[in-house]
Amino acid sequence: MTMPSRMPEPYGQGGGANLADILERVLDKGVVIAGDIRINLLDIELLTIKLRLIVASVDKAKEMGIDWWEDDPALSSGARRNELARENAELRAQVAELEQGATERRAVERGKSERSSTEPGKAKQSKAEQSKTAHSKTEQSKAEEST
């Protein structure tokens, strides 16, 4: 008469599950491991670390609404292209703004130069008038001194 062994059989023998089966089940169903680490000193919370670990297949993760790797440029070439396209559009808009500002500045400078080219005649005229006024004042003062 033989007694059945109470010890479990080693993996890989008989009907036991092997590592591949366990991994397949875990990835198919998904496993969530959550934990918090809190450091308090005299009832004052100094540090809280929240740890969340999800082990699942990509398909299962997408079913759960987790797809952050698709938008991470470091992990997805599509996200990298999208980021480059967005950055390119922003740079084009900035260049257009700069060009528009430069065009407006040139128009303002052109207007100033046109005004300044007509103003020197006025300035000369006013200087001539000023010198005549100054000359007449000196003559009047000389005439007053002589009387």
Report on this model:
The protein contains three helices and two strands, in the order H-E-E-H-H. It has helices at 19-29, 58-63, 77-146; strands at residues 31-41, 44-55. It has a two-stranded antiparallel sheet. The longest helix has 70 residues, at 77-146. The model has no long low-confidence stretch (mean pLDDT 76).
Helix content: 55-70%
- Total count of strands: 2
Rg over C-alpha atoms, rounded to the nearest angstrom: 44 Å
| Helix/strand order, N-terminal first | HEEHH
Structural class: alpha+beta
Which stretches of 5+ consecutive residues score pLDDT under 50?
none
Number of helices: 3
Q: How far is the first residue's CA from the last residue's CA?
A: 160 Å
Taken from the alpha-carbon principal axes, the silhouette is: elongated
% residues in beta strands = 15-25%
| Oligomerization state | single chain
Biggest β-sheet description: 2 strands, antiparallel
> What's the average pLDDT?
76
Strand ordering within the main sheet: 1-2
What's the short story on this structure?
It is built from three helices and two strands. The chain is an alpha+beta fold.
